Amino acid sequence: MTSFQDSETIVLDIQFRIRSILGSIGPTLVKVGRSHVIKGPCDPPELEALLYVAEHNTIPVPRVRRTLWMLGLLKPEEQDAIVNDMAAILTQLRAFHPPKEGVVASAQGRAILDYRIGSHLVGPLQSHASFHPFLRVGVPLGNTAMNFGDLQPITTAIAGR
Hints:
single chain, 161 residues, mainly alpha, 2 domains, two-stranded antiparallel ribbon, two-stranded antiparallel sheet, 4 strands, 38% helix, extended
């Protein structure tokens, strides 16, 4: 294990402990008190928009207490080691076979958490054929003009509506 992997393990362990003690609100938010959360990672445009709205409106938005940036801390050989580690991890993950083929469920065959749907548990669903219409709220694929992953819109545009 490289020194990066050691430090990564420590960071992930600390993140897990913080989330388990204080509570996770989603994939990027950790509650750290009654009225405080830590959010990250954030892209600069998101932070700029939040600060702009706070300065020029009376719209209630979260107050930014502090920002931390971690750029340029790795040497090229450390960056290469990370890329190689990630490639090895992805190779192992792609080789996985699900416990039960075709079922959309947790590893134990229970409900799943998919943030495209919301922050609540759903399922399990017995097939991909039943999962995809569920994900699209029953809208047939042929009736969609654009999908979530398209470049411009963030929402799904539905033809004929």
